[in-house]
Design goal:
By secondary structure, the protein is of the alpha/beta class. It has helices at residues 18-29, 36-49, 57-64, 90-100, 103-118, 129-133, 147-160, 168-184, 206-220; strands at 7-11, 32-35, 69-72, 75-78, 81-82, 122-126, 139-144, 197-200. The structure holds cytidine-5'-diphosphate.
Length: 221
């Protein structure tokens, strides 16, 4: 007999640990992890590669119509090329929120994400998953942490990857700016819905957070 499909929606600001936690939960529950931020990042990569200004809506909408974005087995494909590594660069993080604020971009991405969630049990993370993409998800979480902790995590991550020209102060300023654009945009701003469980990861290990989510889900299935 087929098991009932389940959906877990996670929203939260940059560096809160969403994707690391969601990936682990997906392994434990044997469901699919979908990183929606990677889709906005892939489009941002294409925009920058084409020397388009990330605030030039008209040109971005034009290039969007000639762009193919897909997620397969946790890998993100831009026009059929795997761009998993490139999309994590700091230059992408610095520009992605302008592109993600465009209505036409969101309409396309949300459609793709909803299709991905139709056939499989999923855990999906992003900024509008609990509100727009999967408003009827079985489980909803808002994962966050203090801005200092989030900046420290992101700084460490980038240092380990060998990014040059970064300082902790610059990364923290970038995160504060991105939080502000994501939370104040007109379309689908980042917010905590009343039915989402708040999970502050500032003083918790990844495993503790994974356990909280998994035990919630197991209480019911
Ligand atoms: O990993 P990190 O938290 O830094 O960001 P991400 O999840 O890769 O998302 C990158 C950016 O994409 C966010 O700052 C948002 O501007 C945008 N985004 C969005 O608008 N909606 C989503 N569902 C996911 C990401």
């Amino acid at each position: 007999m087929n098991k009932r499909l389940i959906s877990i929606a996670i929203d939260g600001p940059a560096g809160a640990g969403k994707s690391t936690i969601a990936k682990r939960v997906a392994q434990v529950l044997e469901i699919e992890y979908i990183d929606t931020g990677s889709m906005y990042r892939a489009l941002t990569l294409k925009v920058l590669r084409n020397n388009i200004d990330p605030k030039d809506e008209k040109k971005i909408i034009e290039i969007l119509s000639k762009t193919d974005i897909d997620i397969k087995n946790n890998h993100i494909y831009l026009d059929e090329v795997n761009v998993n590594e490139e999309i994590r660069e700091n230059i992408i993080s610095k520009n992605v929120s302008y592109i993600a604020a465009i209505k036409e971009v969101r309409d396309i991405m949300v459609g793709l994400q909803q299709n991905l969630a139709k056939k499989k049990s999923v855990i999906m993370d992003g900024r509008d998953i609990t509100t727009v993409v999967l408003p009827n998800a079985d489980y909803k979480f808002f994962v966050t942490a203090s801005v200092e902790v989030r900046s420290r995590r992101r700084f460490k991550e980038l240092l380990e990857k060998g990014e040059a020209n970064i300082t902790f102060e610059k990364i923290m300023a970038d995160i504060i700016k991105r939080d502000s654009i994501d939370s104040n945009r007109e379309i689908s701003p980042l917010m905590k819905t009343p039915d989402s469980l708040l999970l502050d990861t500032s003083d918790k290990s990844i495993e503790e957070c994974v356990d909280i989510i998994v035990s919630r889900v197991k209480e019911v299935i």
